[in-house]
Specification:
This protein is an alpha/beta fold. It contains 8 helices and 9 strands. Among the domains are: 107-159, no CATH class; 167-298, RutC-like (60s Ribosomal Protein L30, Chain: A, 2-Layer Sandwich), CATH 3.30.1330. Strands 6-9-7-8 form a 4-stranded mixed beta sheet. It has a 3-stranded parallel beta sheet with strand order 1-2-3, sandwiched between helices. Helix 7 packs parallel to helix 8 (254-264). The longest helix has 35 residues, at 72-106.
């Protein structure tokens, strides 16, 4: 398994729990042993009523579920969403590595180590030192290019491009070159590399006591209440939502879905990227809606 993982670097694994020789849960545990931080997301295939296996898979590190036999529309939507999360994770890790390399180029090693340990205000006392004031932004640009022997004279600054600005906020954009969104969403949402990510599992219309809300409208409102509660528990809010994927089992519920969403999330300026999918059914016929989400906060 380790050889396969290293050789192919899988982006996603669809995994059946009940397999010969090694169970699906054992496979997840083995993947974590090989690469605990960056093992690929796992979607577990289970039976409709196999709640015990679902809970066990979550404890072991599964990211999502598909009910057997899998429906094509639901499978494609969940796979696409997991791949987007995987890409976002990798992009975030790449940017973190670039920042780390830049820090190592312009700061002493012991300062970088203290920053990595969580220190934010580093004020040391040095005696008998001389201080050179320089344009650190442009100087860092040159150092980061790998040429440590270059020193700029005042007249050279005109030929040096300004350092590229990096955003520190979540940005939402609708390019003027394509059609405007036809609903409450943005075409593109950009997350800065230093953001803290939160992946919210698909939420159902389940009340805090474990009972199911009765009507589609009640379930939709409970779903959004659950998402808001998860955001709050992680020191986030609606403004931190990056992407949502909604599964509805009845087309006639679209109007009430939009009405409740508009009431609970009134600020259209912070609408996330979003996907709405109609499916023939969820894991249990009593469920009418499921919403999963990704959030990020700087």
């Amino acid at each position: 398994m380790e050889e396969l993982h290293r050789r192919h670097d899988f982006d996603l694994i669809l995994l059946d729990v009940h397999m010969p020789h090694m169970s699906g849960l054992e496979v997840i545990d083995r993947l974590k042993e090989i690469d605990r931080q960056f093992y690929p997301p796992v979607i577990v295939m289970t039976g409709a009523d196999d709640l015990e296996t679902r809970f066990a898979a979550l404890d072991h590190g599964a990211r999502d579920f598909l009910t057997k036999p899998a429906r094509k529309e639901e499978m494609l939507s969940r796979v696409r969403n997991m791949l987007e999360v995987r890409h976002l994770n990798r992009q975030n890790q790449t940017e973190r590595e670039r920042y780390q390399q830049l820090l190592q180029n312009i700061l002493p090693t012991y300062i970088v180590e203290r920053l990595n340990e969580g220190e934010t205000d580093i004020v040391d006392d040095f005696h008998d030192v001389s201080v050179l004031f320089a344009d650190l932004g442009r100087r860092a640009r040159v150092v980061a290019s790998g040429d440590r022997s270059v020193f700029l004279r005042p007249g050279d600054y005109a030929n040096v491009p300004a350092p590229r600005r990096r955003t520190t906020m979540i940005t939402r954009r609708n390019p003027a070159t394509i059609a405007k969104p036809i609903g409450r969403y943005h075409h593109g949402v950009q997350v800065p590399p230093n953001a803290r990510l939160l992946y919210i599992s698909g939420q159902l219309g389940m009340n805090p006591d474990g009972t199911a809300a009765t009507t589609p409208a009640e379930q939709i409102e409970r779903v959004f209440q659950n998402i808001l509660a998860i955001l709050k528990d992680n020191d986030m809010g609606p403004e931190d939502l990056v992407k949502t994927v909604t599964f509805l089992t009845r087309r006639e519920d679209v109007a009430v879905f939009r009405e409740i969403r508009g009431r609970m999330f009134p600020n259209t300026a912070i609408d996330p990227a979003a996907t709405l999918v109609f499916i023939s059914g969820l894991a249990d016929p009593k469920w009418f809606v499921e919403v999963e989400a990704v959030a990020a906060k700087v």
